[in-house]
Hints:
Elements: H1 8-15, H2 19-26, H3 34-47, H4 53-60, E1 65-70, H5 76-91, E2 95-100, H6 105-117, E3 122-125, H7 135-142, E4 147-150, E5 161-164, H8 166-179, E6 185-188, H9 195-210, E7 220-221, H10 227-239, E8 246-249, H11 252-264, E9 274-276, H12 283-286, E10 293-295, H13 298-315, E11 324-327, E12 330-332
Parallel strand pairs: 1-2, 1-3, 3-4, 4-5, 5-11, 6-7, 6-8, 8-9
Antiparallel strand pairs: 10-12
Amino acid sequence: xxxxxxxxxxxxxxxxxxxxxxxxxxxxxxxxxxxxxxxxxxxxxxxxxxxxxxxxxxxxxxxxxxxxxxxxxxxxxxxxxxxxxxxxxxxxxxxxxxxxxxxxxxxxxxxxxxxxxxxxxxxxxxxxxxxxxxxxxxxxxxxxxxxxxxxxxxxxxxxxxxxxxxxxxxxxxxxxxxxxxxxxxxxxxxxxxxxxxxxxxxxxxxxxxxxxxxxxxxxxxxxxxxxxxxxxxxxxxxxxxxxxxxxxxxxxxxxxxxxxxxxxxxxxxxxxxxxxxxxxxxxxxxxxxxxxxxxxxxxxxxxxxxxxxxxxxxxxxxxxxxxxxxxxxxxxxxxxxxxxxxx
Length: 343
């Protein structure tokens, strides 16, 4: 028997399945049983089914598109996270629509609005450096669109997130500097608005406290957006009365800039100043001396965030709290720190 203008609904009724299950089977989505896929494909071929993509998506109220907003697609951390996200969503039959905010809050708001109007089935977000107001994401949540934050989060929003244990990573980095006889340990801050900067600073301070060392406010170097301004602060720190013998930096790029300042001041690394970064970016291995750092599993973060988002979509149930998936970090020791046996 052959029918004209066969639809997903026709196939679903014949096989006593839901239209969404038939759609996933036709798209070879991994969550559908192989036996069901074979049954659907056999009937679709027998009846001469030709997919009507717009009608199908309207029927099942899904576009099979997911939105992603990141501060910078060229940044190694985010490119790895995107790769992990894409691996998971592609296997599940979804397409990824990527928007870069370029760390511009207005662009971030516009991207969120555009993706919402495009009826994406879900949204993945890593915040800008200076996002202070979250109404554009509150609107996404109010419209019942699942959202998951990655790395950079807002605890005031009732939405899940995937993060690394920034506190523990910073604690371990600072503790290692203390173990290698560093007494004056500075922290080079990240942007104040970011949750990652806050937790890394808290880990640094807690490590000092637990080892009986006071937090010296002169060794807390505030973030500056411009590299030239950061360099001025680094030189002032190295020329000042509280010159550090150990430094923990918010990320590897800031650590690299500080190492350049140390060299320009005629100091030796790690003999005069030990330095540890965060994230284990490629710059950590390319620079001289090679940078000790805290490894951040960007690829796995992307995969976990995508899986968390798809779970909400497939189960048609939002996670309306700040539940976080927390992934571990580990300390990677290279040439900018002294080995324990030397001390």
